[in-house]
Specification:
The protein is α+β, with helices and mostly antiparallel strands. It folds into two domains: 14-73, no CATH class; 86-142, no CATH class. Helix content is 29%, strand content 9%. It contains six helices and five strands; from the N terminus they run E-H-H-E-E-H-E-H-H-E-H. It starts with 13 loop residues before the first strand and ends in an 11-residue tail after the last helix. The strands form two sheets. The chain has a three-stranded antiparallel β-sheet. It has a two-stranded antiparallel ribbon with strand order 4-5. The protein is elongated, with a radius of gyration of 19 Å. The chain has helices spanning 17-23, 28-33, 65-73, 99-106, 110-114, 133-142, and strands at residues 14-15, 46-48, 60-64, 96-97, 131-132.
């Protein structure tokens, strides 16, 4: 389960990586481990203290949100995960389909789709092992991307 930022008010114009990463289709850990190491990634401008001073806890770093957005816009190789337009989906969204058929429709290997089955938010199969196509599509479009580190890093 991903860690959550402290429940503290954040000044306007500032954000944390926990809040910023999902807005751009990535996990906090991916941004922290890979993107933050890239040249030019904005430096933190402050910290949020843990909720209770007597508790041990990590401080949450604050970043200028506009600086993060500008940095990301300049990174042409960091594209967001692809999204599938429901209007162009070739089956009815209420139709029951297998994961293999879904993988074929979206042009992915079956293993790529099957590996998501145990992740939070993945739709449940019916008694026949089929899924509502619209539920699979919603999950696929809302999942966070985890692209690997660029080869030159």
């Amino acid at each position: 389960m991903p860690s959550e930022p402290p429940d503290t008010d954040i000044p306007p114009g500032l954000t944390t990586l926990h809040l910023w990463a999902p807005k751009h289709g990535r996990t906090y850990n991916h941004v922290r481990q890979f993107w933050r190491r890239r040249p030019g990634f904005p430096e933190p401008v402050g910290t949020l203290q843990p909720d209770e001073p007597h508790r041990r806890g990590r401080r949450e770093l604050l970043f200028d949100e506009a600086a993060l957005d500008a940095w990301l816009a300049a990174q042409t190789d960091l594209e967001p995960p692809e999204r599938i337009d429901p209007a162009g989906f070739p089956v009815r969204l209420d139709e029951r389909i297998t994961l293999g058929r879904f993988a074929g429709i979206i042009g992915k290997n079956r293993r790529t789709v099957h590996q998501h089955r145990d992740r939070p938010g993945f739709p449940a199969a019916d008694a026949n092992g089929r899924y509502r196509a619209g539920d699979l599509l919603d999950y696929w479009n809302q999942r966070l991307g985890r692209r690997t580190r660029p080869a030159d890093s």
